[in-house]
């Protein structure tokens, strides 16, 4: 190995400030806003990020390569991230670290039972918490040597990504308002709105979810949610 190869290898080793250097993280997440936060966290930690927005896309990625870390949202448009976690927990080879994420903290137990090594509750914006979640699940020989700088920095995703999520929600609504579609939409918008601090939208999504669980009519709650989504799309910038 010549000097240039030695330098290149050294640059891929984790450091105290960039403890995830050399890792590839596959984020399976349908929210652009949540994914943008994870992209910024990976960038500041030294990791490379790849994104899949549904189970089908994630499985295409996994046919080609095995990421160092997989972070799967529990609620996805074509199924549950828990199913993907179960598949990969028993796969060989498998990602070195498998984490689940959701805005619903009550899903943490189910995620761990499915095979996840940890659970990230949205919003995921703390650099120190993100790094700790990944590193605590890694073998000791993959962790940076010596003391690690615990940065209390938080990231702020571009609000244009939030508007992208509103456009996605509008597209889903235009496809129809069957109960399955509305269940996905309530989960998706609830998580996104809480991450962005949009309390009116989060409350409306929660009302729709409760009405569905209680077997109540959904038409009015769905119309309210659709109106809030359109209101945000009509603004120049998302709130």
UniProtKB/TrEMBL annotation:
InterPro entries to which the protein is assigned, alphabetical: Bact_response_regulator, CheY-like_superfamily, Sig_transdc_resp-reg_receiver
Keywords in alphabetical order: Phosphoprotein
Residue ranges of domain Response regulatory in the record: 24-137
Modified residues (4-aspartylphosphate): 73
PANTHER family per record: CHEMOTAXIS TWO-COMPONENT RESPONSE REGULATOR (PTHR44591:SF25), STRESS RESPONSE REGULATOR PROTEIN 1 (PTHR44591)
Name of the protein this chain belongs to: Response regulator
Lineage of the organism: Bacteria, Pseudomonadati, Pseudomonadota, Alphaproteobacteria, Rhodobacterales
């Amino acid at each position: 190995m010549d000097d240039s190869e030695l330098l290149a290898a050294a640059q891929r080793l984790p450091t105290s400030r960039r403890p995830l250097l050399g890792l590839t993280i596959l984020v399976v997440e349908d929210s652009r806003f949540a994914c943008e936060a994870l992209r910024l966290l990976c960038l500041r930690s030294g990791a490379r990020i790849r994104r899949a927005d549904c189970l089908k896309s994630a499985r295409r990625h996994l046919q080609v390569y095995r990421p160092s870390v997989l972070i799967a949202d529990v609620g996805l448009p074509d199924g549950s991230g828990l199913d993907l976690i179960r598949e990969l927990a028993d796969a060989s080879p498998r990602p070195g670290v498998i984490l689940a994420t959701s805005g619903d903290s009550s899903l943490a137990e189910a995620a761990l039972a499915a095979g996840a090594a940890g659970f990230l509750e949205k919003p995921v914006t703390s650099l120190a918490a993100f790094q700790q979640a990944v590193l605590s699940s890694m073998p000791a020989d993959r962790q940076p040597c010596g003391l690690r700088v615990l940065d209390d920095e938080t990231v702020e995703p571009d609000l244009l990504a939030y508007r992208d999520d509103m456009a996605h929600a509008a597209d889903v609504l235009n496809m129809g308002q069957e109960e399955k579609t509305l269940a996905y939409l309530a989960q998706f918008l609830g998580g996104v709105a809480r991450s962005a601090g949009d309390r009116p939208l989060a409350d409306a999504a929660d009302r729709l979810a409760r009405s569905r669980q209680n077997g109540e009519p959904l038409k009015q709650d769905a119309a309210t949610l659709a109106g809030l989504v359109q209101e945000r799309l009509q603004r120049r910038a998302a709130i």
